[in-house]
Design a protein that fits this description.
With 136 residues, the chain is α+β, with helices and mostly antiparallel strands. It is built from three helices and eight strands, in the order E-H-E-E-E-H-E-H-E-E-E.
Length: 136
């Protein structure tokens, strides 16, 4: 099996503090980390729920990918991330099957994880992310 878990579901938000307060108020969940990832132009907060996370994304600028997503779509689900043990073989498999990759090679994402994105036009109109996780 290529993926063994949903690592996170990411939601683009206008204001991270407001979104965190809303999730705390409605669902009584709180982030365990908050980090600015300059490579992706976002500040992200990771809220653990079961074995996965909700990842809240606030763009650093309107010109960033998440900033453009918000101007076009408003707040909402941005991508789904699958946990993989070996991101190179996962990417090799995706290439073999003709996937449209945004990242041909892994880059470093939040939490220091190696990640790669697959284009939303590749499958089901949804931006997919692979996150390499060594330990469950
Ligand atoms: Co993500």
């Amino acid at each position: 099996m290529l993926t063994y878990n949903i690592h996170h579901v990411a939601i683009a938000v206008e204001n991270l503090d407001d979104a965190i307060a809303g999730f705390k108020s409605r669902y009584n969940v709180t982030p365990i980390s908050r980090e600015t990832v300059h490579d992706q132009g976002v500040t992200e907060a990771m809220i653990p729920i079961g074995g996965s996370y909700v990842q809240l994304l606030e763009p650093l600028s309107q010109e960033s990918p998440v900033g453009r997503f918000l101007s076009q779509n408003g707040e909402g689900m941005h991508h789904i991330a699958f946990a993989v043990h070996d991101i190179e073989s996962a990417l090799a498999h995706l290439k073999e099957t003709g996937a449209r990759l945004i990242d041909e090679t892994p880059r470093v994402g939040g939490g220091g994880h190696r990640i790669a994105f697959v284009h939303p036009n590749d499958l089901a109109g949804t931006l997919m992310e692979l996150v390499e996780v060594e330990h469950d």
